Amino acid sequence: MDPDERVLDPNEEPTPIPADPQNAPKPRVRRTHLSLFVRDPEASAQWYEDVLGMEVTARGPQWVFLSFGKKHHDIALIRAEEGAGTGGVGLQHYGLEVEGDLEEWRRLYGMLLAKGVPVVKTTDHKIGFGLYFTDPDGNRFEFFHETVTDDEEGKRILGLYGAPSEPVEIEPLRG
Ligand SMILES: [Fe+2]
């Protein structure tokens, strides 16, 4: 939480920081997860269960989360817009689970802003914090800072709270 209760504006012009390649934060990715737009999450989930041997760890009307058995989720299937065809079905976001503490994650946030990368949102998933941003083509990525590192506990919370995703304001660290 931001102790000063400031509201972050993702469209705010980033404050340039001096280029210092030695100190620039670099993401140390630990694990990844994939989130896909599909036309019918339940039908697709059946395929992922049948073909890839995955198990459903959480589901809602618009999405199904699946695991290869260890993690709370490896793949999330999100309902695409009605009538979506090529281009509207596919990657929703690619999650990069980064090493380090919350401070390091906040430095990555500052790094994105400093580099003028569009930040979409910051989200509390109860099992971690998500920082969503886009590449030059609008493809969405997520730096995921895991707060629940026990995989069994992560699965339990994800299912219990229905894959929670709540907006959260966390101050980026710059420099
Ligand atoms: Fe994600």
TrEMBL record:
SUPFAM superfamilies: Glyoxalase/Bleomycin resistance protein/Dihydroxybiphenyl dioxygenase (SSF54593). Residues 1-28 are annotated as: Disordered. It comes from the Bacteria. Pfam families: Glyoxalase. Signal peptide: none annotated. InterPro entries: Glyas_Bleomycin-R_OHBP_Dase (IPR029068), Glyas_Fos-R_dOase_dom (IPR004360), VOC_core (IPR037523). Residues 30-146 form the VOC domain. This is VOC domain-containing protein.
